[in-house]
Specification:
Blueprint: H1 9-13, E1 20-22, H2 31-39, E2 43-49, H3 53-67, H4 71-74, E3 77-82, H5 83-86, H6 91-97, E4 106-109, H7 114-122, E5 127-131, H8 137-142, E6 147-151, E7 157-160, H9 168-182, E8 187-191, H10 197-205, E9 210-213, H11 215-218, H12 227-234, E10 241-244, H13 246-251, E11 259-264, H14 267-272, H15 276-281, H16 284-296, H17 319-334
Parallel strand pairs: 1-2, 1-9, 2-3, 3-4, 4-5, 5-6, 6-8, 8-9
Antiparallel strand pairs: 7-11, 10-11
Helix pairs in contact: 2-3, 3-6, 10-17
């Protein structure tokens, strides 16, 4: 691992060389991507997502195997889960706590983190809580969060709906001010719309200690996302995504009402815009259409999970190259340099 170009309490706390955490993207952040990011000096969170024990066990073990016993790299490996789903089935969470390798951190998102954060604290595992509104912040801090992730509505995948949500770059400084007053020891990461060093530097200038990055690392060679999906995403811009519950309905995901899902606004999505109640009441034919699209990798019908920063993604590089580019550009900017990569 190279010496950090940017040093702060987040980097020091988690033995990093860059103030970046890999987002625990369900079905995309597997062992290969997590291991690559850990080796490159980022905090790497396997996508435990819905708490599927078989998937989480396989990918977490793969990451450990790929890190080949290197203690520094292993010290940056953790996992992330969906809190409301853990309340239904915590088998993957319990399995993780029983492993010889203690996670560097566990991230909890979407729902009350308290019961699971308490367990993690008892195991002396750092707790990361992702939030989407100011109202969620005291609850997360009271639950013992060591790190807060401020997720804006720009983010790909799940987040709070547009009506209740916030832009990343107004949300981050408000949280930073609250933490400075009420919980100054708590680390703050920004999430949503950050795909290059400009975004990382901007987040840090607004009071964040670093960034949680999803979409840009989704579009890497080590991500488990289909190559065909990544190639379609390369042709998309930030105007081409939308946040609704349409794809959750088509996938049979019963998310709490306040949360929905950002993906590319494809033909099937457009068909159901403005007709969500109709889709929800009789989804069978649409689900069959969607499922057929997934099987055929037809992304006019199957979803592609990316955020509004998709227009900043111009190639499918390795995770190591992406992290190095972001880190170097951010370091130049924070030291008064220019925006060139």
């Amino acid at each position: 691992m190279q010496q950090p170009l940017i040093t702060n309490r987040f980097v020091e706390r988690f033995n990093l060389s860059t103030p970046i955490a890999l987002a625990p993207m369900a079905l995309a952040t597997g062992g290969n991507l997590a291991a690559a990011c850990a080796r490159a000096g980022a905090l790497s969170l396997v996508g435990g997502g819905y708490g599927d024990l078989v998937w989480t066990r396989r990918e977490y073990r793969d990451a450990i195997s790929l890190l080949d016993g290197n203690p520094q790299d292993l010290s940056r490996l953790g996992c992330g889960f969906i809190s409301w789903k853990l309340a239904e089935d915590r088998s993957a969470f319990d399995w993780l706590l029983d492993q010889q390798h203690k996670p560097a951190a566990v991230m909890l998102s979407f729902g009350d983190p308290t019961p699971f954060a308490n367990i993690l604290s008892d195991h002396k595992i750092p707790v990361i809580c992702q939030i989407q509104t100011m109202a969620q912040l005291p609850q997360a801090v009271d639950a013992g969060a060591n790190v807060i992730v401020a997720q804006g509505t720009e983010a790909g995948g799940h987040g709070v709906n547009e009506l209740d949500g916030r832009s990343t770059f107004t949300f981050v400084p408000e949280i930073a001010d609250w933490l400075a007053k009420h919980s100054p020891q708590t680390i703050l990461l920004a999430a949503g719309g950050i795909a290059d060093g400009r975004g990382l530097a901007a987040a840090m200038m607004l009071g964040a200690d670093g960034a949680l990055i999803g979409s840009r690392l989704w579009a890497t060679t080590q991500s488990l996302a289909a190559t065909s999906a990544k190639n379609v995403a390369l042709q998309a811009g930030g105007d081409d995504t939308a946040r609704t519950s349409i794809f959750d309905i088509l996938r049979g995901k019963n998310w709490p009402e306040q949360f929905d899902f950002r993906a590319i606004r494809n033909i099937l999505h457009r068909k159901w815009e403005g007709r969500i109640d109709e889709l929800r009441s009789d989804p069978a034919a649409a689900i069959e259409d969607y499922t057929s699209g997934v099987r055929q990798e037809d992304y006019d019908r199957a979803h592609i999970t990316v955020g509004q920063d998709v227009g900043l993604i111009n190639d499918i590089s390795s995770a190591e190259e992406v992290l190095d580019d972001i880190n170097q550009q951010a370091a130049r900017l924070l030291n008064g340099g220019n925006t060139e990569k």
